[in-house]
Amino acid sequence: MNLCIMENCIKPVKAKKYCAMHHQRWRRHGDPNTIKVRKSDPPAVCQWVRCEKPTLCKGYCAKHYYIQRMMKS
């Protein structure tokens, strides 16, 4: 079994002599040493009137999303 060519990495090779993690970094950034944290959007607030809970799906919190689904059925 071949190991990743990166220093101190003992994971098995996936492709191009890199393990899965280093290969993915190489594909995304062109360098297997580059580490970039993906930024997520700030949590949105429910669209329902006077509701300040964070959204779950389609702009509504869990409670109001359920109500919306039932109203459309």
Automatic annotation (TrEMBL):
Top-level taxon of the source organism: Bacteria
The protein, known as: Uncharacterized protein
UniProt source species: Paenibacillus mendelii
